[in-house]
Amino acid sequence: MMGPVKFSTVNEYIGTFSGIQKKRLQELRRIVKQAAPAKATEVISYNMPALKGNKVLVYYAAYPKHIGFYPTGSPVKVFAAALKNYKTSKGTIQFSLEEPLPAELIKEIVAYRIKEDSAILPSKKKAGSKK
Fold first, then answer.
1. Which domain holds residue 100?
2. 86 with 8: CB under 8 angstroms?
């Protein structure tokens, strides 16, 4: 196969991994889905798993030594104190593969993103809803 793989489903993405990477991806997927409203949908965006409400709530991806969690920029600032033990950048949090995922913190971040997302033009979504 030539060129990078383009994923079309979250299962397809996760299925390309094994071992601890696959385990952590499955855990993160479960945590994020538990924290999100039932109407949230799983999508592939930027060729990685994402959970979408009105807009994408969070993205995540596996790397050789960490799981990248992308909740956008504002939660990284708001939760800075709770994230002090993790490597972060503008809109990124890295969770080491060597340590358990901080499930409660992830749920709080997803809840924060849901509140932000619900403030995004809900009337526009009703008018031109896309899945």
1. 10-110
2. no
User: What's the pTM value of the predicted model, to 2 decimals?
Assistant: 0.86
SS3 of residue 95 by DSSP:
strand
- Pull the structure tokens for residue 82: 């709770």
**Does an H or E element contain 122, and which?**
helix 122-127
Q: Are 57 and 45 in contact (CB under 8 A)?
A: no
Residue 118 forms part of a structural domain: no
78 inside domain: yes
Query: pLDDT digit string (tens) for 108-126?
Result: 999 999 999 988 654 444 4
* Residue pair 75/113 in contact by the 8 Å Cβ criterion: yes
The domain that holds 36 is classified in CATH as 3.90.1150.200
